[in-house]
Amino acid sequence: MSVPKVFEPCKLVFGLLYRRHDDKTHVLSALTELFGPLDAVTQPQNFTFTRFYDKEMGSGLLRVFGSFDELVDPERLAEIKHRTNLLEQSWAQDGRRTINVDPGLLSEERLVLATGKNAAHRIPLRNGIYGDLSLLYRHGAYRPLPWTYPDYAQDDTRRFFGLLRGLLMARRSGRPPRPPQSFKEMPL
């Protein structure tokens, strides 16, 4: 018989899609009000992996990834997704989103993204939100799965999450982290 244990806190991470620099600045500010200070944000990269968002958000989208300093209880993921959905709605213009925020939880073993869309590999969490197992940590790196979104499967993105894993482990152990020379607005 397995004995339930308290879940280890995880690193709250996000992917942000946007078009205008001002939107990014304002959304990052709003996210810090909701979830505390950021400890890492990547440089913007052109989002060319799909045209799925073009009809709603327009073309020329940019993607950044980032994370928050404070660790969170993984049981909060559904609540966090609902809060980021409200943020997206508050920025919408004429019923169309101008930003897309994908929250997720990074642990030493995996990356789980929150979504409102069901699929065979997604686990129901709470209140219509599913956990999407997106990356597994194996053989010294986060590895994509057959369904992993292409931008999350990129080598540079997975290396960034590997750096965040180091911050997570340092935070859990109480030892000071060793970030690269510049973690804010770091390149992918």
Explain this structure.
By secondary structure, the chain is α+β, with helices and mostly antiparallel strands. It has one domain (10-173). The chain contains 5 helices and 9 strands. Strands 1, 2, 3, 4, 5, 6, 7, 8 and 9 form a 9-stranded antiparallel β-sheet that branches. A hairpin with a 3-residue loop joins strand 5 and strand 6 (110-115). Helix 1 (21-35) runs antiparallel to helix 3 (77-91). The radius of gyration is 16 Å and the shape is globular.
Could you give the topology of this structure?
Layout: E1 10-18, H1 21-35, E2 38-41, E3 45-46, H2 54-57, E4 62-72, H3 77-91, E5 99-106, E6 110-115, E7 122-126, E8 129-138, E9 141-144, H4 150-153, H5 155-173
Antiparallel strand pairs: 1-4, 1-5, 2-4, 3-4, 5-6, 6-8, 7-8, 8-9
Helix pairs in contact: 1-3
InterPro entries: DUF4416 (IPR025529)
Keywords:
single chain; 188 residues; alpha+beta; 9-stranded antiparallel sheet; DUF4416
Could you give a short description of this structure?
The chain is an alpha+beta fold. The protein has helices at residues 21-35, 54-57, 77-91, 150-153, 155-173, and strands at residues 10-18, 38-41, 45-46, 62-72, 99-106, 110-115, 122-126, 129-138, 141-144.
